[in-house]
């Protein structure tokens, strides 16, 4: 019994062990299944990741291809733009005041490239002053470009701010052309040539009284000599005949509208941009005052952009439309006039500069004895050249290089070259009784020591505001009222 009992116990133990083994195997099998499932899931996830990576790679490749295509299109477009820019005819003028002035209008470009206009680059704006101040060598061409730029900004700003004034594109172009061509009539060394004309045409039979008249004559000559200019004028202007007449009015500075003859009825203000006969404050005065002040190193408070932004067109009691300036800036305008006055005193009529002017005028008078200017198939004198625009086109500052064996001319040229000067014997205030010729005769008669008739020079000095009493300007106030400056305008000269 004991033996059987032990055997039973062993069998029971074996049975328990087998059960435990079976349970362990089941558990291992379940874990193995779970592991297989996890591995399958991991493999599936890995495959999904690989597929996703493949998609991302494909998308990246597509994007790269698109970017490449876009870049190629951009490069092609930029190349086309660059080619267009290169093929497009334009000019860029570098200006110390305005920066880069870009000109791309075909008509303006064609005018600038004419011989009549290009002649201005050989005429110094400050004429004789370069002999004493080397940086004063900027030309009439540069002044003309500056006037063109400023006039364009002026009229376009009015056009943009006040569409009710009906400023057309043809109006804008007429103002710009008038400003561009305003200086066409200047002779060698600018205003010295005017002094020369007074000497050689003493009886009032000068070919013109004002430079603006010569500018209009040269403008007509330019159109006659350049068919492309005429064709472009006909293309760009609304009414060729009327607009050409209007451009000439603007160059002259005539107030044709006063006689009801103006070419722009109801647009009187357009006559006040290029040459303002009423107030004296126009683009011509602004441009040369700012540039000439820079020659002297003067700092001026006048900001041309701020000025243009505040000018408005308003109707007056007589139904005429004029330019109105803000009352608050009155002192700024007077300061600009003071600067111009200072330029007359310290630059234009400075003693050493006027002496150079007298020398150059004397040389021109001496050179005028011989025909040296080509006019078609003949040679004419300098004074005769003013009667023919084809001959006058040949006249610029280089005329001083014309050969002349006159001892006085050689001596005067040596004075200019060596910075030597001629003497000054005194000052006198000119009156209505004591005019230039009477003063001259009096000095000659009372100089007993020698005969100075051929050497005596009387040089009247001006301040630039001889007729300041007639200048006036309309203004508006911050509360909407309007008025007109009369005796207050340019009041510093009183």
TrEMBL record:
Cellular component terms per the entry's GO annotation: nucleus
GO biological process: dGTP catabolic process
Keywords (A to Z) from UniProt: Coiled coil
Domain of life: Eukaryota
MF annotations from Gene Ontology: dGTPase activity
Coiled coil: 7-62
InterPro entries in alphabetical order: dGTPase-like, HD/PDEase_dom
Family label: Belongs to the SAMHD1 family.
Protein name: HD domain-containing protein
Species whose genome carries this gene: Amphimedon queenslandica
């Amino acid at each position: 019994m004991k033996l059987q009992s032990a055997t039973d116990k062993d069998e029971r133990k074996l049975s328990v062990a087998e059960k435990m083994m079976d349970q362990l195997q089941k558990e291992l099998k379940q874990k193995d299944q779970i592991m297989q499932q996890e591995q399958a899931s991991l493999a599936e996830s890995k495959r999904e990741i690989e597929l996703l990576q493949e998609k991302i790679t494909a998308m990246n490749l597509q994007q790269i291809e698109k970017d490449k295509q876009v870049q190629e299109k951009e490069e092609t477009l930029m190349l086309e733009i660059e080619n267009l820019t290169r093929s497009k005819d334009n000019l860029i003028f570098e200006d110390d005041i305005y920066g880069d002035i870009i000109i791309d209008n075909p008509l303006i470009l064609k005018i600038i490239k004419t011989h009549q206009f290009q002649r201005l680059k050989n005429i110094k704006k400050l004429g004789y002053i370069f002999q004493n101040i080397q940086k004063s060598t900027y030309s009439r061409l540069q002044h003309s470009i500056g006037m063109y730029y400023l006039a364009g900004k002026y009229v376009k700003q009015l056009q943009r701010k006040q569409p009710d004034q009906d400023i057309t594109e043809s109006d804008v172009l007429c103002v710009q052309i008038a400003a561009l061509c305003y200086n066409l009539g200047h002779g060698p060394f600018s205003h010295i040539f005017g002094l020369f004309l007074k000497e050689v045409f003493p009886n009032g039979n000068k070919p013109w009284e004002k430079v603006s008249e010569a500018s209009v004559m040269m403008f007509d000559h330019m159109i006659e000599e350049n068919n492309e200019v005429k064709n472009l004028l006909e293309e760009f202007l609304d009414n060729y005949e009327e607009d050409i007449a209007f451009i000439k009015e603007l160059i002259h500075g005539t107030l044709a509208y006063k006689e009801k003859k103006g070419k722009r009825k109801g647009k009187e203000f357009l006559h006040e941009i290029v040459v303002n006969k009423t107030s004296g404050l126009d683009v011509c005065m602004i441009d040369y005052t700012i540039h000439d002040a820079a020659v002297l190193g003067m700092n001026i408070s006048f900001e041309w952009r701020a000025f243009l932004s505040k000018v408005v067109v308003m109707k007056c009691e007589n139904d005429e439309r004029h330019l109105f300036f803000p009352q608050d800036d009155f002192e700024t305008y007077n300061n600009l006039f003071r600067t111009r006055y200072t330029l007359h005193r310290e630059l234009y009529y400075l003693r050493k500069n006027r002496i150079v002017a007298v020398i150059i005028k004397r040389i021109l008078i001496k050179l005028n004895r011989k025909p040296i200017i080509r006019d078609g198939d003949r040679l004419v004198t300098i004074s005769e050249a003013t009667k023919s625009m084809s001959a006058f086109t040949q006249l610029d500052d280089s005329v001083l290089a014309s050969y002349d064996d006159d001892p006085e001319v050689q001596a005067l040229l040596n004075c200019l070259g060596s910075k030597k000067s001629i003497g000054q014997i005194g000052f006198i205030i000119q009156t209505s009784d004591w005019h230039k010729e009477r003063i001259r005769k009096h000095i000659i008669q009372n100089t007993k020591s020698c005969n100075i008739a051929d050497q005596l020079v009387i040089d009247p000095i001006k301040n630039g505001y001889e007729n300041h009493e007639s200048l006036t300007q309309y203004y508006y106030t911050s509360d909407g009222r309007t008025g007109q400056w009369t005796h207050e305008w340019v009041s510093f000269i009183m």
